[in-house]
What does this fold into?
Amino acid sequence: MHALEHPEHEVSIALVGKYVDLTESYKSLSEALIHAGIHTRCKIRIHYIDSENIEQHGTDCLANMDAILVPGGFGKRG
It folds into this structure.
């Protein structure tokens, strides 16, 4: 509990997907990242970024991220 309440570091992670308006769609991934952060004493800041936004406007929105996670997809848009 101490590691959760008193992190030593902060990490910004871009979660890029097509369902970012429904963040519950990525619940298992966000929980896994948060638990990994506890283990490594890091505060995880997840930034949900619509993949279509990147397609239309480029990758500038990813510039300040420490990591990028692109969940697997399927179909033409996946």
Observations:
- Residues 27-39 form the longest helix (13 residues).
- The helical segments are 2-5, 27-39, 51-57.
- The first strand starts at residue 9 and ends at 17.
